[in-house]
Amino acid sequence: MVVEPGLSEDAYASVRDLAKRCQEHDGLTLKLNETFLRTRPAYEVNDLLYYAGDRLVGYLGLHQFQMHEVELTGMVDPAYRRRGIFSALVAEARQEIDDRGASVLIFISPQESNSGKCCLQSLGASYSFSEYHMLWDGRTRKATASNVTLRAAEREEDLHRVALMTAECFEMEEGDVHSSITEARLPGMKRYLIEMGEEAIGTIAVNEIDQREAFLFGFCVLEAFRGKGWGRAALTAMIGMLSERGFSSIALEVAAENRHALSLYEGCGFSILRANDYFKQSLE
Which residues form the N-acetyltransferase domain (predicted)? Predict the structure, then answer.
């Protein structure tokens, strides 16, 4: 097993190759957060690599978006399964996470993967919630409120405002605000303020994966401004802006139980492509 800070270009290529082998065998798409894999900090271990000779056969990635929890997503080569590789990776991950102050592990598994569910349950993780991965249909819609605008959050005070609104809307802890500001500076990540006149009423973020593919996240409108169609107007404006720049594949994720958001996204041209299940395990 290789446990080193950062993720080299060669290691990243090996992870992608392993993902391809797994997806072709299982017929499932894995959530690997590839954009974050390209920008791993060199001072911290976030990727655990299990080799058989010079062939990568097991991988586990750590993503800490909030201080108290760490998301884990991993895979094992189909030819090397049932050998305890994933369990070994998780055991090593626990050691790495011990010093981070996190109290919860969150494992992500494709909803259709029965073997993935059984594996996680055998490790003591319990089902928590599901998310839908949704894809835009390629048709732009007319904005419902022309007085809603998007402004790139480029100044320090803008990023701080985005972080505060994100923490308020998603009920994040204060310590996670700093993580939101840091994340906004990663390559390909762009944060926007949703404004009515000069008043910020929400925020939306985009991860520009490549020149044609984008992923929307962190979309929220402050509670006092909800139910007025302004969120729909902001989302429509963002889609239009990305479409004009040549992005043809626009995706987002939503909690399966959030029926209001699901309805909003469907009304803006998004449809469910697949689902992921999230399993939690307490470290306390």
Answer: 2-142, 148-284
Residue with tokens 């009423």: 201
Burial of 87-114, coded b for 16+ CB within 10 Å and e otherwise, reads eebbebbeebbeeeebebbbbbbbbebe
CATH number at residue 209: 3.40.630.30
Question: Does one domain contain both 127 and 24?
Answer: yes
CB atoms within 10 A of CB 207: 21
The domain of 174 spans 138-268
- For residue 267, the SS3 value is helix
The per-residue pLDDT for range 5-15, each reduced to its tens digit, is: 889 999 999 99
66 within domain boundaries = yes
- What type of residue is 261? A
pLDDT band at 143 (very low <50, low <70, confident <90, very high): low
Distance CA 79, CA 57 (A): 8
Structurally, how many domains does the chain consist of?
A: 2
Residue 26: count of CB within 10 angstroms of its CB? 16
DSSP 138-195: S-----S-TTEEEEE--SHHHHHHHHHHHHHHTT--THHHHHHHHHTTSTTEEEEEEE
Phi and psi at 168, nearest 5°, equal -70, -45
Ordered alpha helix ranges (H), the chain: 9-26, 34-37, 85-97, 114-122, 156-169, 175-183, 230-244, 259-267
Q: Identify whether residues 254 and 193 lie together within a single domain.
A: yes
Work out the number of other CB atoms within 10 angstroms of the CB of residue 223.
9
- Shared domain for 113 and 18, answered yes or no, is yes
Domain identity same for 78 and 189: no
Task: Read off the pLDDT of residues 172-184 as tens digits, 9 standing for 90 and up.
Answer: 876 676 666 666 6
